[in-house]
Amino acid sequence: MAFTFWSLLEASLLIVNAICVLHEERFLAKVGWGGEQIQAYGSGPSVKSQILNLIRSVRTVMRIPLIFINIVVILMKFVLG
Amino acid sequence: MRKARRAAEMQDQGASMPYPQYGYPPPNVPSHQDSSMYMTGPPAGMYNPAAAQAPMSPPAYYPQQGMPFMPMGGGGGPEQNNFSMPAQFLQNPVMTNMAMQYGQSLVGQGKEALDRELNKYVSTSRIKYYFSVDTAYVAKKLALLLFPFTHRDWSVKYNPEEPVQPRYELNAPDLYIPAMAFVTYLLIGGVSLGIQERFSPEGLGIQASTALVWAIIEVLAIWVTLYVMNIQTKLTSFDILAFSSYKYVGMIVAVIASFIMPSVYHLALIYVSAATMFFLIRSLKVQILPESSHDSYGEQNTSFTGEGSKRRTYLLLFMGGLQPLMMWWLTRQIARP
Fold first, then answer.
1. SS3 of B275, please?
2. Cβ contact (<8 Å) for A7 and B206?
């Protein structure tokens, strides 16, 4: 039951992939997690809007790097099993 | 031989600098070229043009008293080989001084650049703060970690100029105890496996990797929770790391208890879990929960009211509840059954 650093990297790559694959209109809007930002006056942003914000930022930042990282990992898996 | 000696002398002479240490010294690249010209024997053909240019080309940083010697050395006679020039220059005291100054400035620049790069990612002074401990603090903190129940005053002293160092404030988080406890935990784990005749060298590495990964996951989970719940605290990620790593002390105690008598392990684990939970919740309550934050800020933050307060309590309980789980998870394979 060794949980190595490498598996942490793999897991984080998969999770970031999973976050990036969530589509704004096709998926999030249908679940009711659309982009509308309705905030009650005086209260901070809600948990939902913070999660949406996080998803959106991860998607924006990681889109290009993810392409390359995924290609590298796929090639490595092909070669090294 | 001579080169080595010169370099050593340059290291020693710290007082005279051609230009100050701060900022980006403009003649970065030229000084590199110049010093390499003096320090190492340059190939033929590369030296002469430089010497010919020297009287007119040197930038402002070039020490002025060295100027008259340059043409003299350069025009010393056609029979002089190019290769003998550097040695001759180095024997000249003015040239030696200059070379020393260049070398000194190079060393300074390198150190500065390293500091700058390092400071971009981790601020060194902040790390230093977490390691400013002394023996009395460590002893008291260890006692507090294992017997937190009678401790009364959990508030952290507040100094407007700078954070109060751990050695002056028992309740401030440090990283010294967590770091040492982490290493000790790994070694004790090795000893424990050795007693059970299950020891293998690579097992130590696997265990270290596993513990490190779980620590990272825990800090990440707490950090994401802080963000998602939109809780503003004074906690930095180093604080979170420090507080969540105090559990290794308890884990060491539990594993050592299992040496003495295997059946004691569970009892010891229960006790140190309770102690760590108590310690963590009392310490973090000061930093996370609203009423204490009111005192230091004196102003009302929107996230402190109603919903925010409830979220903070949940976060506190989440962090506290995580500790026994992690302690059990990380010691269950090591301790004697």
1. helix
2. no
* Cα–Cα separations (whole angstroms), residue B297 to A1, B165, B290, B304: 47, 20, 10, 12
Delimit the domains of chain A by residue range: 5-80
Per-residue pLDDT reduced to its tens digit, B24-54? 444 444 444 444 444 444 444 444 444 444 4
Q: Note the pLDDT tens digit of each residue in B212-259.
A: 999 999 999 998 888 888 777 778 888 889 999 999 999 999 999 988
Chain B residues 212-231 with a CB less than 8 Å from chain A: 212-214, 216-217, 224, 227-230
Query: Quick one: how many helices (H) and strands (E) in chain A?
Result: 3, 0
- CA B246, B248, B250, B252 torsion-angle sign: negative
Return the amino acid letter for B28: N
Q: pLDDT, tens digit, for every residue of B129-144?
A: 888 888 999 999 999 9
- Angstroms from B304 CA to nearest CA on chain A: 10
Please state whether the predicted TM-score (pTM) of the whole model is above 0.80.
no
Distances (CA, A) of A9 to A13, B137, B217: 6, 37, 11
Contacts of B198 in chain A (CB under 8 A): none
| Helix%, strand%, coil% for chain B, nearest 5 | 70, 0, 30
CB B315 within 8 A of CB B288: yes
Dmax (CA) for chain A in angstroms is: 56
